[in-house]
TrEMBL record:
Residues 70-332 form the G-protein coupled receptors family 1 profile domain. It is found in: Membrane. It is a multi-pass membrane protein. PROSITE patterns: G_PROTEIN_RECEP_F1_1, G_PROTEIN_RECEP_F1_2, OPSIN. One of its GO terms (biological process) is phototransduction. It comes from the Eukaryota. This is Long wavelength sensitive opsin 1. Residues 359-378 are annotated as: Disordered. Belongs to the G-protein coupled receptor 1 family. Opsin subfamily. Its main location: membrane.
Length: 378
């Protein structure tokens, strides 16, 4: 439906038949009080087919439902299970908390706006929407960085590493949110701004203004919230996989000298720790690229080039970034065997295959436990 509540598909079809809407643009349905926030760039595009609004609204609604339920379960299980209340898992809980709030604040407003086919919540909520999306996105990204750094510290440094305490973990959580708030309130005070984008159903940073202030924010923000975190995660997992591969090689050589097939039980040797860890590392980095790179490309295209950024492409790139809140519970929660055991106990109907009774080692962070057992066996 349109803002006025009239059926819009028939109107759109008629306009399309007479020359794709005549002089109508994607901005025409925007309320008058919002027009000062809309960049002149968007006036060149005709209104989207209402079917796209329906598809986008449905997609963001489904993603929001999955993310809110999934991250809510991760928070509940990690906080209510004694064995999972460890300092390292405080970071996992923080990630779930950030992703939970991300879709709680992003999904319902966008569903409403897709229904009305434009932004109908006013200028203040547009700024708030853009700020929340940036805040929780930044919080999730830097939480993933600290998780990678913690695993690097435990697995690569091993016994020489300084153990993560609850106090240190809480301090890192505080640093994450302090950085996130600092970056995301900057546009509110004039360093860039939050504006409607794409098909006018969502708001984000202004990547179309060519002034130095707007461009500088996009550049600096992308360095500290995309490139630097990505490099840290790649660096951490690269050395983690290397360390585990080296250990596995030593274990195989030692087993060969002792004339045994393996120093581990047959169950543990079915899937090597290096393979498990490599898969999780690859999944982490791949999902990072899938989620955030399209939106980064959109931002850079806006401030650097004159290439056409269509409303439909823009909003889909934004949706990909929001979808990261759905991936994280799977990567950081369900890949944890103790989490699966707790999930089976609390929600048995959601578990297809029961985890082994003694499967108490995290695939991602529990490699050090395997290492310690191997060394004691040696």
């Amino acid at each position: 439906m349109s803002v006025m509540g009239e059926p819009s598909f028939a109107n759109w079809a008629a306009q399309r038949a007479t020359g794709f809407g005549g002089n109508l643009t994607v901005v025409d349905n925007v309320p008058p009080e919002m027009l000062h926030m809309v960049d002149a760039y968007w006036y060149q595009y005709a209104p989207l087919n209402p079917l796209w609004h329906g598809i986008l609204g449905f997609m963001v609604g489904v993603l929001g439902f999955i993310s809110i339920i999934g991250n809510g379960m991760v928070m509940y299980i990690f906080t209510s299970t004694r064995a999972l209340r460890t300092p390292s898992n405080l970071l996992v809980i923080n990630l779930a908390f950030s992703d939970f709030l991300m879709m709680l604040t992003m999904s319902p407003p966008m569903v409403i706006n897709c229904y009305y086919e434009t932004w109908v919540l006013g200028p203040f909520f547009c700024e708030l929407y853009g700020m929340f999306g940036s805040l929780f996105g930044c919080g999730s990204i830097w939480t993933m960085v600290f998780i990678a750094m913690d695993r690097y510290n435990v697995i690569v440094k091993g016994l020489s590493a300084t153990p993560l305490t609850k106090k240190t973990a809480l301090l890192r959580v505080l640093i994450i949110w302090a950085m996130s708030v600092g970056w995301t309130i900057a546009p509110i005070f004039g360093w860039n701004r939050y504006v409607p984008e794409g098909n006018m159903t969502a708001c984000g940073t202004d990547y179309l203004s060519k002034d130095v202030v707007s461009r500088s924010y996009i550049f600096v923000y992308s360095v500290f919230v995309y490139f630097l975190p990505l490099l840290i995660i790649i660096y951490s997992y690269w050395f983690i996989v290397q360390a585990v591969c080296a250990h596995e090689k030593n274990m195989r050589e030692q087993a060969k000298k002792m004339n045994v097939a393996s120093l581990r039980s047959s169950e543990a040797s079915q899937t090597s720790a290096e393979c498990k860890l490599a898969k999780i590392a690859l999944m982490t980095i791949s999902l990072w690229f899938m989620a955030w790179t399209p939106y980064l490309v959109t931002n850079y295209s806006g401030i650097l080039t004159n290439s056409k950024i269509t409303p439909l492409a823009t909003i889909w790139c934004s949706l990909f970034a929001k979808a990261n809140a759905v991936y994280n519970p799977i990567v950081y929660g369900i890949s944890h065997p103790k989490y699966r055991q707790a999930l089976q106990k609390k929600f048995p109907s959601l578990v297809c295959n029961a985890a082994p009774a003694d499967d108490t080692t995290s695939q991602a962070s529990g490699v050090t436990n395997v290492t310690a057992e191997d060394k004691s066996a040696a």
